[in-house]
UniProtKB/TrEMBL annotation:
Keywords: GTP-binding, Ligase, Magnesium, Manganese, Metal-binding, Nucleotide-binding, Potassium. Residues 388-412 are annotated as: Disordered. It comes from Actinopolymorpha singaporensis. Pfam families: F420_ligase. Residues 18-61, 66-209 form the Coenzyme F420:L-glutamate ligase-like domain. GO terms for molecular function: coenzyme F420-0:L-glutamate ligase activity; GTP binding; metal ion binding. This is Coenzyme F420-0 gamma-glutamyl ligase.
Amino acid sequence: MSDDPRTGSILVIPVLGIPEVREGDDLAALVADHATDVRDGDVLVVSSKIVSKSEGRVVAGDDRFAAIRSETVRVVAERGPTQIVQTRHGFVMAAAGVDASNVEPGRLLLLPLDSDESARRLRRGVTERLGVRVGVVVTDTFGRPWRLGQTDLAIGAAGVRVVEEHRGRVDAYGNELVVTAPAHADEIAGAAELVKGKSAQVPVAVVRGLAALVTDEDGPGVRALVRSAEDDMFRLGAREARREALRLPVATEPLADVAVDADQVRRALSGLADTTAEPAGMTAEPGTPGRWGAVEVTEARVLKPILDALGLPSSVPVLVIVHVRADGEAGRTDVLLGAGGLRERLVRSCVVEGLACQWVPAEAAGEAVRHVLPAGAEPVGALAIGTGRNAAQNPAENGARKAAERAAQNAR
């Protein structure tokens, strides 16, 4: 490739000869002294390790777990000794970025306190010394939740368009782009890693050919890439999400006459997946004859008269009738406990899916629902699923419901 790449090409150049960095070293001066051919529009890509060393983010000690805890604001998942955590910066990564490589034995390296500010300082220093307009990206190594292996991502940036929103544009075929938003800072970090390597002690690279991404202002930095809690569908690991779901309150509430998402209802009822079809839009969980079970009533011509009789909103899409079929009193307690467990599981599943449910006890539901039950079954109660009145009146304040939806997504 030529030294001056044509449009559409980039050149990635390792910066060689940078010595071991110590606390207090002028990193901008070191980079400027060794990156002798930096031009307007280049992007300097700098390993966070030398940034941390220059800022004194090296601690003594062999207790790596204590160091990880000090840098952690939230544990996302842990399996054995491996911890995936969220750092003070908002990054979700293994071991909070605490590293024992490329540092003296008995020492641990922490991430910069504010890697965006580190990038801004480095950019100012290099610009003052070399008189060129550059961007700066500070990088560290991350694993990926869906793929094996690690790659470098941006943890700090200045003077670089870190992400570009393409929503509303059209592709070459005229299709509107809906979710396309290239994370340019991460792409640059990965490209630079190809020449920096993990053990070659080349902590800086120059990426040339991306002048269109270099900005006059420092910009928002990598903070713009951190996904908010509200938009994070993978905020917990699978096991941790299940634990969180177990802590959700198991309660019922009056329903509002508001339509609900059919997919949410379907997921909430997935606990009754092993069912057999029965007439009139009903399915039953047969269990063991003489035990407990449930009937789902979904077909409008069967469901509406029951809803009217029970005084429930007509928007309720499904009624789950929990019943028992006990032969004699000897096993009745166990049967009722099983039915109660089914009710609790259904209520919790509704909470996880962001739905509300209203429980109608047997005394009120008995005659209205008895005709849809299997022969010999006695109703314990009916669970109507829909939208709670509180959620309908205060949708913006329904944070617990949103958290439950995130937990449900993580657990799948």
